[in-house]
Amino acid sequence: MRTPQVAFMLNFGPAPSTAAMLRALYQDLYKPGLYSDLWFRLDGKPMIMAYPDALPAQGVCDKDTALLNEIRNFFTFRPGQPGYGTGPVTDTQWGWLEKFPQHKFVPRADGSCEMMTVGVAQNCNDERICTHFNDGKTYGRSFTYRDRFSKIDENSYKYGYNVQEQWDRVLDIGPDIAFITGWNEWIMGQFHEPWLKDNDSTQLAMVDQYDREHSRDIEMDKDGYLDTYYLQMVSNIRRFKGAVQRKPVSAPQTIRIRAGERQWKTVSPVYLNDKGTTIHRDWDGFGDHHYKNETGRNDIISAKVTRDADHLYFMVTCAAPITEPTEEGWMTLFLDTDRSKATGWEGFDFAINRLTPKRGKTSVERYLRTADAGSFTWEKIGEADISVKGNLLQIAVPRALLGMTGTLDFEFKWSDNMQEKNIMDFYRNGDTAPIGRFNYLYRE
To answer: Could you state, in order of their start, the residue ranges of all structural domains in the chain?
Structure first.
C-alpha cells in the first residue's frame, strides 16, 4: 500500500539549534536506516527543510568533522523561507506558507518550478507580513486577494475561499510539488513578544490558532467546518496529480453465497480499504477531558461486487473473523443507486443489513423521506440472502427489489457499528469502507 512519506522541517535559519537537530535526526533515525521506506526523497536523497550552513565547517575533533560531512552529503537540503511574501532568496529555498499570489520556489529558465505553497489561511495582514491571528484584519479562511474581506460572515469559514484561490494559482502554474499548510496544528499557543506592537499591552497573541475563521487546520472537526476542507484538499490533489484510471468490471457471474471465497477470484475490481482502523481509543485530552472510543469492531479490508440477470452480489472481507450480529448497524451496506446527493440519506437510497439478520435472511430498506431532510429514517421493502463464514460476508439482493434492472452505475459503502446516525460518524465510530464521506463506484 502506498503510504505518506516523511520529511522534517527545521528552523527557518542557520541557528545553532538547527545543527543540534540535524545531528540528532541523522544519528538517531537516518544513519541506522529506521523506517527508510517512509523517507521522502528528492534528487535521490532524503530531503530535509533545513539550512546546511548551520553545520560548522569543523567539528570538535576529526571524527566529529567527518560526521558533519556525512550529514552534509546525506540529505537534499531545502532551506525554509519564513516570509509569507518574500519569495526565494537562494536557488534551493522552499516556502511553507505564503499569501497570494504565491511565488515559485525556485523559477527555472523554462518558467517551471520545483514547488509552491498552498495555505488554508495566513497569519498576516496588510501591515505585517507575519503577525498573530487575533491581530486586526488577518487573512483568515474567508479572505481572498480578489475580494478581500467581503465574503466574511458567520458561516463563510466553511467554504475554503482563501485556500481555493491558492490552489487555483498552483494548478495554473503546475509546480512539481505542492506544499500544503496545514493538517492539524490544533494548538492555541499564547504569546506576548515579539508579536505585539505595544510592549505594555496585556493582549495575548494567538499566533497560529484563534478561532475557526483564523486557523490553518484541514483535519476534520466535529461541529464546525466538518470534513469540507479535507474533501476540498482531496479534490484539488486529484486535479494536481491526476487519478488512477477506473478498472472495468468483470463479466456477469452467479454467486452461491453459501460457498466460499474461491468463486470470487474471477470477479474484479477489488475495492481496498485501510487496515488497522478499529483500534480503540482511551486517552486524556486537555484539562479533565478524556477520549474513549471502543466502537471499533470489524476491520473491513476489501470488497467486491458482481451480478447476474436477477441478483446483485456483494462480498466483504475483514481482517479477522466477523463478530456475531447482536444489534442494529452490524455490517451494513449502503447504496446510492441514482448517484445523487439530492435523494436519500446523504445520497444513500437503500440500506441492506441495517437490521439484525435472522436465519440467512437480512433486511432491505429504502430511505423514507420525512419533513426533516436529514433524518435517518428507513422502511423495510424486502429481504436479501446473507451468509457469514469466518472473515467473509456475502449478500445476494434481488435487482428488481432495488429497481436496478438496467445498466448498473451506482455507489456503495460498507459500515460497521455506526453510532450517531450522522455522516461524520463514518470518521469516528466503528469502521467504514471507504473512509468518511467517500464511496466506492460500480459501473458497467
So the answer is: 8-77, 261-443
